[in-house]
Amino acid sequence: MPEKFNMHSPPFDRLNVSQQKKLRESLDVAYFRTNEILLKPGAESQHLHILIKGAVEERSQDNKEIFAHYANDDLFDVRSLLDNTIKHRYIALEDTLSYLLPKSIFLELYHDNGQFAAYFDNNLARRQALIETAQQQQNLAEFILTKVDKEIYHPPMIFSPDQPLNQVTQTLKDNGLDSALVKLNNNDIRLVDNHHALPYGIITRTNMLHAVMLDDHPLDTPVGKIATFPVVHVENGEFLFNAMIKMTRQRMKRVMVSDGKEAVGMLDMTQILSAFSTHSHVLSLSIARASSIEELALASNRQRQLVESLLNNGIRTRFIMELISAVNEQIIEKAFELIVPPALHDHCCLIVLGSEGRGEQILKTDQDNALILKDGFEWHQCAAVMDQLTHTLQQLGYPLCPGNVMVNNPKWVQNQSDWKKTISHWSKPTSADHVMDLAIFTDAHAVAGNKTLLEPIGQHLKQIMLNNMLALQDFSRPALQFALPLTLFGNVKKDKDGLDVKSGGIFPIVHGIRTLALEYGIEEKNTFERIEALRNRKILEPETADNLSEALKLLFKLRLNQQLTHQHSHNRIDIKQIDRTQRDLLRHALHVIKKFKQFLGYHYQIRD
């Protein structure tokens, strides 16, 4: 009947032409006055509601709990159509118009069209995957689907370890190659000490030249003796984008391609850049070559452009986070190298905390960092140098931390022994500030200087918190303190400042998962990796793990889209600027978080 009904958004775009025609011919329109009940608990639902205008609130049977709000283009109550009984009360908050799709027609379409049915699955991960598939058909660049295969990499040149250096050099020249692999003998001491590594070394023109000219190796030196081991590698069939992230993070020009334990090819950055339209590696090279803060700032300022390019080309938010995290780490490390005298690098370690430590920062946010000094090391100019480093990072686009969690604050500059004492103190139930300080440090990641200085401190933290339910109960409370923003949907409650996705959604997941990771001694820092580790340990059910990951991805994506659109860096999003599909997914994500918070409260016996 209604010709204006929108068939172009999920799930209705999954219907074929005849199914769409049947749906359109079956629709009716109903009008409901303010406070009128649309659906009553215990009754049998006869229609799927698709709102045209107005606002509807979903409440519990006793009216004590509000589950969701619905506005323009939202639909409900699918569950009652499938279960035959309405469980919640639906009330019009203002004069409301709604399309009504008869139950019989909905069920017919549901059973005849698998993709249409999949949209209504309660599992957020499956629904998000369906939506992303639709978006990919519209704007996903071809290269994100590109995998490492023989069409991209070239076959490897492989030498035996006993071949002389001069012969290898001639062979490379004759074949126009600047690198090759060396298949190591099974009794090679390097393999004995690294039994998980692949049995290959790599030689390049550069290290062969250094071997002869700088290290005085004779021309008949066995090539295995100078081959670099282990070789950085990617698996055949892995996403090419992952290979680029690995090469960017480790500053490699080339990687070996393996199939199991066998080398099947070599992949260099030129081949990747020919497949990708992004210039992340060029940015990485600019950072590495910067010899002044001004040059580093020029490279750093290109980050936002890179993020926009990746997002516009359909790259998933998780991939963007990994790549930008690697770039951020390089910028911060380079700033450290330019400010801190080289002779002191082995005596101190710069660590990043918070979202940067977890590898979950996309656009530049506040500085969160600390410094570890080697025990017994006295550095009288430390405060002045750390002031300079903080100022330099500010120049590079990293704002000052409002909480003063920075290396220019003596609280966050300590030697190894003092850091252990501080962490022991923070772990005792004392104050909310200590809980958050401990939470911040839990995500510590070493980026510059002597990175091994963090390891014993990390182990100390792990041992203190492992199965320490008293400390963990106190530690977990912040994940439960923010109310879920379910009442901010649609026209129910307009907030000019928007919905705070960090406090209302991102933080409860991040901190709740961080708490569980501490309880079970999980060493991963990234929240997605922590979720996967908790799933593998059977601490989280597979469906719960999937839903939490998808909810977090969605919140990151919604925040990033609006930050780029409106050129800001805060955590609030305008609900009116997201379409029905995203609103629907957001509502499901918040219900996933609600269930997770209930689980945390039960698990840590918090009954506040």
Count of strand segments: 20
Percent in strands: 5-15%
**pLDDT under 50 segments (min length 5)?**
134-144, 488-494
Helix segment count?
24
Structure description:
Mean pLDDT is 84; it is low at 134-144 and 488-494. Helix content is 46%, strand content 14%. It has 608 residues and is of the alpha+beta class. The radius of gyration is 28 Å and the shape is globular. 38% of the residues are buried. Helix 11 (280-289) runs antiparallel to helix 12 and helix 21 packs antiparallel against helix 23. Strand 4 (56-59) and strand 5 form a beta hairpin. The strands form 6 sheets. Strands 1-8-3-6 form a 4-stranded antiparallel sheet. The chain has a 4-stranded antiparallel sheet with strand order 2-7-4-5, with no helix packed on it.
Brief sketch in words of this structure:
The protein is of the alpha+beta class. Residues 134-144 and 488-494 have low confidence and may be disordered.
SSE layout and pairing:
Layout: H1 17-26, E1 28-32, E2 37-39, E3 47-53, E4 56-59, E5 66-70, E6 75-76, H2 78-83, E7 89-92, E8 96-102, H3 103-112, H4 114-119, H5 124-139, E9 158-159, H6 165-175, E10 179-183, H7 189-193, E11 200-204, H8 205-213, E12 233-235, H9 240-250, E13 254-259, E14 262-268, H10 269-275, H11 280-289, H12 293-300, H13 303-312, H14 317-339, E15 348-352, H15 354-358, E16 369-373, H16 382-395, E17 413-415, H17 416-426, H18 432-442, E18 445-449, H19 454-465, H20 469-476, E19 499-500, H21 501-519, H22 527-536, H23 542-566, E20 572-573, H24 580-603
Parallel strand pairs: 9-10, 12-13, 16-17
Antiparallel strand pairs: 1-8, 2-7, 3-6, 3-8, 4-5, 4-7, 10-11, 13-14, 15-16, 15-18, 19-20
Helix pairs in contact: 5-24, 9-14, 11-12, 11-14, 13-14, 14-16, 17-19, 20-21, 21-22, 21-23, 21-24, 22-23, 23-24
